[in-house]
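Subject: for your reference before the review

Hello V.,

The reviewers asked for a structural picture of the protein, and I figured it would be easier to keep everything in one thread rather than splitting it across files. Below is the amino acid sequence we used in the manuscript, unchanged from the supplementary table.
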Amino acid sequence: MPAFPSFHRPSHGLTRQEFLQIGFSSMLGLGLADLIGPRPVQAGPAATTLSGKAKSVLLVFLTGAPSHQDIWDLKPGAPAEIRGEFQPVDTSVPGIRIGPHTPRLAQMAERYAIVRSMTHELPGHEQATHFVLTGINQLPPGATHMASRNDWPCYSAGLQTLRPRGDGLPAGVMLPTYLHNGYGFSGQTGGFMGSQVDPWHVTKDPNAANFRLDELTLQPGLTIQRLDDRRAILSQLDGQRRDLEAAAASPALTRSQSEAYQLLSAGGRFREAFDIEREAPETRDRYGRHPFGQSLLLARRLIEAGMPVVQANMGSMNNWDTHGSNFAQLKDRLLPPFDQGLAALLTDLDERNLLDETLVVCIGEFGRTPQINPTAGRDHWSGVFSALFAGAGVRGGQVVGASDAHAAFPATRGWYPADLGATVYTALGIDPASTIIDRLGRPHRLNAGEVIAPLYA
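And here is what came back from the structure prediction:
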């Protein structure tokens, strides 16, 4: 297996993040035109804008799929081989009980809602990740278990298509890992909409002492004024060599150079958001000095800087995939940093008056089996699972939906990934029924789900 994901590379060349990772000095070189070809993409028509309350959406993604029946939906009356080792505890909201190893979240249940009847039909990590990160219920034609340009666009790509930013910045950031198993997981890019709407992927640990994004750092001795000067010189060189290059390559090169330039010059708040050392030590301590906590803190900084869609992956690929020692892993490794980081995030957003305009969604790609296996683990299960929602008009202190007595299937209406997508897009003021036009000129309905209306009741 290769050390980095093996993309199905689009014929039109490098993605935005690949270009930025080349570095600023390479951007000023003349050899890049040979690597970048045309990027034939048509943006879809503007969506009918709904009264979305959210300025931003933060998707806290529990990659690998957490055990819903040991965190959000315990079944103390079920047989021992199903209920497991944990007993539910009371929360700050009478009648709502959750698992015993998220004590901070238990004391702020009035700030979030739990949906206990999420469901879909394909419990495979790659496919289910695709579903949840894009808001679809089945794979689009040509999509497989590997990332490709046949995939459905992720939420930030849908937003970027229908409401393009005018400042050269991306509409979304995913951090701190790119999910892959030797190949990229589907659902993390612009998919069939093309690379120009890909989110920006940050693949460094914000908790690391040397955390820094070189792509957003000017080289020593290079100021914004000198950057402007070099850009002007490059523009002149482009004009002189235009007759020597393939006609299709030059526009793509100019666009990519412009994107990098905007990130370095106009995106001041965006650059500063990554300078996590600006945070007070006590704030960093409150989130927790671990990847979970610092990733959520970085996500808050990006939201505060105006980033519309942020996805914070809670761990590397399949981190919550507890096929063995499920209870020990949850108790000792997974839930303590998760509880600390998410509780700090919700508190911080509220104290900064950002929670009312930020939709927070915490979800995995599916749940775990009701039956405990011989290694004290739980296996893949998509029959029912849970998700947490907060902010942007969501009424906290409630449970939406219910599972059956064994947490195996919905006992009330099931809510699907497409419904999650409709909720995300509507919160952002995007009509889920909008038509998007892919890079080959084909029309698609953006989303076919329904808003999870009880969240707002």
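For the response letter, the relevant points are probably these. The chain has two domains: 1-39+216-273, 49-213+279-456. The CA atoms of residues 272 and 305 lie 8 Å apart.

Happy to draft the paragraph if you're swamped.

O.
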